[in-house]
Specification:
Length: 379
């Protein structure tokens, strides 16, 4: 009988001790929380485990998450280069080394006689990690340099791909992709609860509940399901610190973020009877507020929740001259990945980001509004 993806992963975890968890570049709160929840679970099972995310910088409001400061920003020392020296003819009296002009010089003094080139051979050790978990990433390219600089490692190591988005390319040897799940954290919960008896504790529960609350906008989004509510209830029973999660995700904003939100709200535009809501932010707005485009994901969520008729919410951020970053949130039945497919969007069907290159911010605005006009014209 063929094993389910959950059962296959259980077997892989049993057989392998050195495990790597990788998040896509610029991970969502859900990805970070799911990665930490899985990390804590595997660590509790006495596994040798690491979490890596390309050029990762921990957002200030994520510092409450258990072990959040242990997420590494790059992947190093995957294999060791081994130099073998045949000692059958003579033994080593002294060993030393130095580095000159980008060269490592190793000096071996024999007890008697001498060594020659025939006594030397080289090899490489096995890869440091035996199993890879990739979380919340549609493809391996989204991992950034972690993948680009270590492609051979990914080709030679089993990959478990965990995601909930339809854009996922099923690139793993085991693909646990649940399109009905509200979040990757929800899928990780279903996985780790069966790793071993009584594995869930307040730290794992807090991480996973953080991901679910973030993805469902504190259970206010249309994606909430009875299953996600039941899982959240169970996590709270296991000690998840709900009040701390809400405080950090929704009630803790820097002055810079609030300034940027204010500029965003002051420039709101609407069309199609309030169904489309958007705002433009130039480079001067970021310079004056001291915030970045990444600080705007929360305001997109707030607009979607608090604007009754909103179906599409967009923010245009001028990163450089003629390089615009767009953040889009759509209601459940509008697929943002398909609607804006011309711009190679990343994310999920209801929360996407993409770049518009070669246009200033007003030109980018007009281009996207034409695309939306085409969409509503077909309705």
């Amino acid at each position: 009988m063929e094993l389910s993806p959950y059962q296959q992963i259980q077997e892989l975890v049993k057989k392998n001790n050195k495990i790597l968890i990788i998040l896509q570049k610029n991970p969502s709160t859900d990805a970070i929380a799911a990665g930490l929840g899985l990390f804590l679970s595997l660590e509790k099972m006495k596994k040798n485990v690491k979490v890596v995310c390309n050029q990762f910088e921990l957002p200030p409001y994520h510092q409450f998450l258990p072990k959040s400061k242990e997420i590494l920003s790059d992947l190093t020392a995957l294999r060791k280069f081994i130099i073998h020296l045949d000692l059958s003819k003579t033994k080593v009296k002294e060993l030393s080394y130095d580095i000159t002009e980008d060269k490592l010089n190793i000096y071996v003094t024999p007890k008697s006689g001498f060594f020659d080139q025939r006594d030397i051979s080289t090899s490489a050790s096995k890869y440091e990690h035996e199993l890879i978990f990739v979380l919340d990433s549609p493809d391996l390219e989204s991992l950034g340099d972690v993948y680009d600089e270590n492609a051979e490692f990914f080709y030679h190591t089993p990959i478990v791909n965990i995601d909930h988005k339809p854009a996922n390319e099923y690139y793993g040897q085991v693909n646990l992709v649940d399109l009905v799940a509200t979040s990757t954290s929800e899928i990780v919960f279903e996985l780790v609860k069966d790793f071993q008896e009584n594995i869930m504790d307040e730290y794992i529960a807090t991480s996973l509940l953080t991901g679910i609350i973030s993805k469902t906008k504190s259970f206010q989004s249309a994606t909430v399901t009875p299953k996600s509510l039941a899982i959240a209830s169970h996590l709270i029973e296991q000690g998840a610190r709900r009040d701390e999660i809400i405080k950090n995700l929704f009630r803790t904003k820097s002055i810079a973020t609030l300034k940027l939100w204010g500029r965003t709200l002051a420039r709101l535009k609407t069309d199609y009877d309030g169904r489309v809501v958007w705002s433009l932010l130039g480079r001067q707005d970021f310079d004056l507020s001291g915030a970045s485009c990444n600080n705007l994901e929360g305001v997109v969520d707030e607009l979607m929740i608090n604007t009754p008729n909103a179906e599409i919410v967009l923010l245009f951020c001028e990163k450089e001259e003629k390089k615009i970053d767009a953040i889009v949130n759509t209601i459940k039945n509008i697929d943002g990945l398909r609607l804006f497919s011309d711009f190679k969007p990343k994310g999920s069907r209801n929360f996407t980001r993409f770049e518009i290159v070669g246009k200033n911010i007003v030109e980018a605005e007009n281009t996207i509004l034409e695309k939306i006009k085409e969409y509503y014209g077909k309705q």
